[in-house]
Amino acid sequence: MPSPSRVWVIGLDGVPWTLLQPWIDQGHLPTLARVQAGGAWGELRSTLQFLTAVAWSSFITGMNPGKHGVFDFARRVPGSYDQELTNAARRAGRSLWRLLSDAGRSVGVVNVPMTFPPEPVNGFLISGLDTPGLDSAYTFPPALKQEVNDIHFIAVSTVGKSHAHYLRETLEGVDKRFALLRRTIARQPLDFYMWVEMETDAIQHCSWHLMADPGQPGHDAILQVYKRIDGHLAHLVETLPEDVTLIIMSDHGAGPIVKTLYLDRWLARQGWLHYKQERGRTLGDRARAAARVGLRQTLYLAQRFLPVAAKGFLKRFSRAHAAVDTFIEKADYDWSRTLAYATGNLGNINLNIQGRDPQGVIAPDQVEQVIAQIRAALHELRDPDSGEPMVAAVLRREEVYSGDLVDRAPDLLIRWRGDAYLATKDYEGRPDGPLFGAKQKFGRHGAAYALDQTGTHIMEGMCMLYGHGVQPHARLQDAQLVDLAPTILHLLDVPIPRASDGRVLTEALIPELAHKPPRYEEEDQGIAGGPGSDLSPADEAAIRARLQGLGYVA
């Protein structure tokens, strides 16, 4: 039996094999080529929906969303149509680092999404994308903030930047991320260390279209980011201690956006969603709608032509506007006639059911009929250019998830054909507008953000295992994101929770570890729900604006 190991996890958000393998084969990524050649590797199937918040929460807990309760970056407030942002405190289930800490293992966790507010661990934790700002309490222990505040950052903003400017800042961001890795990985002896690089996903969202034209400036933007990461990884791999199992993984993959669909506008055309008629709109409704249009026009001009200092002020102002935008738009719906409405930007539909929703319309005995009608209509949806069906499947939440929190999920989830369509919302409340768009602007304020979103998420991510205890030249078999937590616990000889939905990836391990029976907790300890975290209005606004600017939410 091999000696006890340590585990290091490098998360590369959104990296797909469709990009990685050709660039490895062409010699662009020698470090990742070395890891692949000497270790175990394969596709890693994400969650549905394959959103950052959902996927990382499933990695963290080893459970499907029906158990941990995170289905998007925002969730419905029970008993209302309002939405609130999700975070670590609003997630159910014990985290991987909670399990390791309780078992006496030392842990270091850096920049993993959905880790704010930071929980006390046996080691340290620096929260990731859902951190409100660097002025917040984003580290455990709190004193660690003073050690990393000079180098840590949350995300590279897209606001008011050319593509060249954004790429330059993204590459600088990669350098800073690895500087933080080097500073923290050697901070103290650790049994488990994890660090996540987010810039892979972000650059793909705004640069995918450039790869099609080698003569276009920035056509190799994504490759430049991958190469910068590969160069930084070289020293880590070359000096990997003999007792460390290295896991390099992504939470989902990436691909092109063929088209965007205004899903709420489509629902309105079908007669399932209704906006307030002009005669039913209060003076306040009309004033807010006019203010939204004027604000977007002002922000567009200002972000293009004002000096940097003024842009910074407008960025903060637009965050405050974004915080209430969702509420304002929902006030435009005529709930007394609305049967279904869209949420998120990958294709979720909620029904408006009597007895469950505040102004429910669908009688409980009519739910199945409405679902059948929506399903049939979506399957008839065709790409207006190719004529091909756009929808691969329309799934009820019970078909996708299991667990006590399934009732918090959207009622219906759309799986787009090829994962190549982006569902977005019509924020002007104009059911007579176009159904389809070719490009989606970052952020809520349209062209105030210079960059187009041309890349989206796909289900299949990647995973490589290398080093201690790994079977060289092994291929992963039907591996899923939820399998990594049980595998890590197995490597560190810590019992696996019975609520886990994953398995140990035994095909990636040497025979001594593969044949060792996984240890499970003797009793089912249940799934504790998070206590909740009341974000201030300013914190919620800052997080929401950042997610919109990165294309993570509509």
Q: What would your notes on this structure say?
A:
By secondary structure, the protein is of the alpha/beta class. The protein folds into 2 domains: 6-254 and 457-525, Alkaline Phosphatase, subunit A (3-Layer(aba) Sandwich), CATH 3.40.720.10; 259-452, no CATH class. It is 34% helix and 17% strand. It has 17 helices and 22 strands. The chain has helices at residues 17-25, 30-38, 52-61, 65-68, 96-102, 145-148, 163-185, 199-207, 221-238, 263-270, 283-305, 308-330, 367-379, 397-400, 484-491, 511-514, 537-549; strands at 6-12, 40-45, 74-76, 83-85, 107-112, 123-127, 139-140, 192-197, 244-249, 253-256, 259-262, 340-343, 348-351, 391-396, 412-416, 421-424, 436-437, 440-441, 452-453, 455-458, 460-467, 474-475. The strands form 6 sheets. It has a 9-stranded mixed sheet with strand order 7-6-5-8-1-9-21-2-22, sandwiched between helices. A 4-stranded antiparallel sheet has the order 12-13-15-14. Strand 12 and strand 13 form a beta hairpin. Helix 2 (30-38) crosses helix 9 (221-238), helix 7 (163-185) packs antiparallel against helix 8 (199-207) and helix 11 packs antiparallel against helix 12. The longest helix has 23 residues, at 163-185. The chain is globular, with a radius of gyration of 23 Å. Residues 295-328 and 444-449 have low confidence and may be disordered.
